[in-house]
């Protein structure tokens, strides 16, 4: 390949890859010895196998061999092709064995997470308790939940820690995909699917319920009926007057409550 060294390094940049990444190499999966554009391509194919016990996922750090997309040379993992001299990825992480030509993503490796992230290192911080990188806007401004990202999205059940989708962090500290979160709100569901706490400030909504209760007279038989409730937002247990519209927590004024059995008093 003729040209200056820089021209050779940049040859084919952004011209190769798959729907997941722009890169100038493919990987050989050590688990099945097959060649794929990236680990996501491998996982999608492997998880479609007819026999369930044949399905598997690629461990990114196990990759030892890559194939240059420009000259088809198979070689040990490295940034530059040993044959034609192109950069197989403008961004290269030798820990994750990760290549990408698209630097606009703001790629960076987080040592605490142990994987590469997107969005720019300066825009994120790693929360030790939550065990993941969060937007800098949440620094000192979120509820910590231990390993909050190391679970599956409660809506679509995709694993959250290394998801490629935008993530929403709710008031309670639990996480889910941003698209799943928005869809949940469209369906008038305002409670965390994991802990049932309200996912946003519901003050205005509680005021509307106050007005509806005031305008809705209960029948005489139910007007003085009391029930015990548990508040999903503050975990307080109290006895309140029953109303068909909802029961209001006396402690935090939330209507995110549920009726429970009366507490059992200790026997003398």
TrEMBL record:
Its main location: nucleus. The keyword Secreted does not apply. It comes from the Eukaryota. Residues 153-196 form the RING-type domain. It holds the Pfam family zf-RING_2. GO terms for cellular component: nucleus. Residues 11-86 form the CHY-type domain. One of its GO terms (biological process) is protein ubiquitination. It is found in: Nucleus. Keywords: Metal-binding, Nucleus, Ubl conjugation pathway, Zinc, Zinc-finger. One of its GO terms (molecular function) is zinc ion binding. InterPro entries: RCHY1_zinc-ribbon (IPR039512), Znf_CHY (IPR008913), Znf_CHY_sf (IPR037274), Znf_CTCHY (IPR017921), Znf_CTCHY_sf (IPR037275), Znf_RING (IPR001841), Znf_RING/FYVE/PHD (IPR013083). The keyword Lyase does not apply. Pathway: Protein modification; protein ubiquitination. Residues 88-152 form the CTCHY-type domain. PANTHER family: E3 UBIQUITIN-PROTEIN LIGASE MIEL1, RING FINGER AND CHY ZINC FINGER DOMAIN-CONTAINING PROTEIN 1. This is CHY-type/CTCHY-type/RING-type Zinc finger protein. It comes from Artemisia annua (Sweet wormwood). The lineage of its organism: Eukaryota, Viridiplantae, Streptophyta, Embryophyta, Tracheophyta.
């Amino acid at each position: 390949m003729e040209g200056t060294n820089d021209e050779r390094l940049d040859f084919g940049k952004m011209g190769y890859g798959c729907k997941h990444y722009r890169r100038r190499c493919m990987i050989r999966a050590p688990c099945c010895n097959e060649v794929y554009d990236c680990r996501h391509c491998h996982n999608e194919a492997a998880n479609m196998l007819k026999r369930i016990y044949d399905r598997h996922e690629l461990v990114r750090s196990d990759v030892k061999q890559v194939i240059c997309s420009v000259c088809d040379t198979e070689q040990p993992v490295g940034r530059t092709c040993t044959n034609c001299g192109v950069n197989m990825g403008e961004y290269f992480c030798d820990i994750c064995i990760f290549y990408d030509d698209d630097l606009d993503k703001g790629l960076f490796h987080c040592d605490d997470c142990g994987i590469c992230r997107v969005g720019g290192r300066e825009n994120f911080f790693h929360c030790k308790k939550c065990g993941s990188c969060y937007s800098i806007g949440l620094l000192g401004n979120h509820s910590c939940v231990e390993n909050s990202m190391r679970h599956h999205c409660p809506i679509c059940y995709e694993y959250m820690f290394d998801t490629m989708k935008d993530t929403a962090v709710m008031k309670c500290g639990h996480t889910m995909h941003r698209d799943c979160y928005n869809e949940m709100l469209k369906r008038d569901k305002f409670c965390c699917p994991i802990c049932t706490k309200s996912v946003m400030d519901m003050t205005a909504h509680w005021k509307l319920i106050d007005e509806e209760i005031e305008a809705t007279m209960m029948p005489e038989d139910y007007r003085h009926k009391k029930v015990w409730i548990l508040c999903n937002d503050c975990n307080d247990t109290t006895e309140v007057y029953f109303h068909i519209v909802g029961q209001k927590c006396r402690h935090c004024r939330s209507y995110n409550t549920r009726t429970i059995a009366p507490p059992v008093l200790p026997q003398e």
